[in-house]
Design a protein that fits this description.
alpha+beta, seven-stranded mixed beta sheet, 11 helices, about 350 residues
């Protein structure tokens, strides 16, 4: 009998689900609009900086600094916790979402910096590497490098980008320039937050997951093309505050009423059923509590339908305010560019800064 004791190789514990390490996910992590307003209440005005064309005044999608008569720099940052478990998918979603802010202003991105916080004692290095690879793959699709970044050891996984872009001042599109008489176009379907809530409970089908992933990794590059059309007056991307919240920002900034048609709003194929079953995020409740007084909904609208309107969108579509006579042509252009869910969803009217849903 040999004196050598054979030892079994230690059994490695399986990697945890990414979503199990975070208290929220995607743009559902955003602070409620009312909290954000309170935090920025004493934020210094941008007045002394005449070259700062867009700052924090209207909650727009990115900051814009004018260099000369033909060039502006667009700067934004966006990051969040995982809404999916596949690390490569998480990286792709977060990068697509961050780059969207530049497109929403009418700009074209030129480079990105990575923002990374990881619980190093809980996640294998290989998973973090896949997150970064996923983000880099979307940046490559947008034609930009990840030129650097910053990382920390954090209690929850966080990933995103700071993105820099350029635009000609005449192509700048803000969220506060909608005009009475304009038509409203939405370029992507709603319901991402509802899908992510179902996913976290293990109740989202593989087909629905693929549908969601296709939407949240679709770059909003059409925004840069639309900005070159003088009949496109205002643009914003629809993210964590939902269609109601971002519509209300546009309405208040423009001093006009946005009227949305509930029947015309596009939704992911399972969103209505899942909402009826209660698969909604906490952010949906916080959103309504923050801005519900600025929205007029149909009498007797059930709560599950209201949640479709306040549902936080991760990497959502663009809400476009354009000359009504051109809306059909612009919609056809948007669909041809690869956004099949795009719809004309309402109009802009003279009136107080609010959103009316009919």
């Amino acid at each position: 009998m040999s004196d050598t004791i054979e030892r079994e190789a230690p059994v490695q514990a399986p990697a945890p689900r990414l979503t199990s390490l975070a208290h929220g996910g995607g743009c559902g992590c955003k602070l409620a609009p009312s909290v954000l307003q309170e935090l920025l209440a004493e934020h210094p005005a941008a007045g002394p900086y005449r070259q700062l064309l867009v700052g924090t005044e209207t909650g727009d999608d990115a900051a814009v600094w004018q260099i000369d008569d033909e060039t502006c720099v667009v700067a934004t940052t966006d990051f969040f916790m995982p809404m999916v478990d596949d690390p490569h998918d998480f990286g792709r979603i977060a990068a697509t979402n961050a780059i969207s802010d530049v497109y929403a202003m009418g700009g074209k991105p030129i480079m990105a910096l990575a923002i990374l916080g990881m619980p190093l004692d809980k996640l294998p290095v290989a998973m973090t590497r896949e997150i970064l690879k996923g983000g880099a793959s979307i940046c490559a699709e947008a034609g930009i490098p990840v030129a650097g970044g910053h990382s920390i050891d954090a209690p929850e996984p966080i990933y995103g980008l700071a993105v820099i872009g350029l635009l000609n001042p005449k192509n700048l599109r803000r969220n506060n320039a909608a005009r009475p008489g304009d038509a409203l176009i939405l370029t992507k379907a709603l319901g991402v937050g509802i899908y992510s809530a179902a996913f976290k409970k293990g109740e989202l089908s593989p087909a629905a997951y693929d549908e969601m992933l296709a939407s949240v990794t679709l770059l909003n590059r059409v925004g840069a093309d639309l900005a070159q059309d003088a009949d496109v007056h205002a643009v914003t991307d629809v993210t964590g505050f939902g269609i109601l919240g971002h519509g209300l920002e546009m309405a208040r900034g423009s001093g006009a009423t946005l009227r949305l048609s509930l029947a015309d709003l596009p939704f992911l194929s399972q969103a209505e059923r899942l909402a009826q079953e209660g698969r909604v995020t906490g952010a949906s409740h916080r959103n309504w509590a923050s801005y519900g007084d600025g929205a007029v909904l149909p009498t007797g609208l059930p709560d599950w339908r209201r949640h479709l309107l306040t549902d936080p969108q991760t990497s959502g579509g663009l809400l476009v305010s354009c000359k009504a006579e051109r809306a059909g042509d612009l919609l056809a252009r948007i669909r041809a560019a690869g956004y099949p869910s795009a719809r004309i969803v309402g109009r802009v009217e003279a009136g107080p800064g609010r959103v009316v849903v009919a």
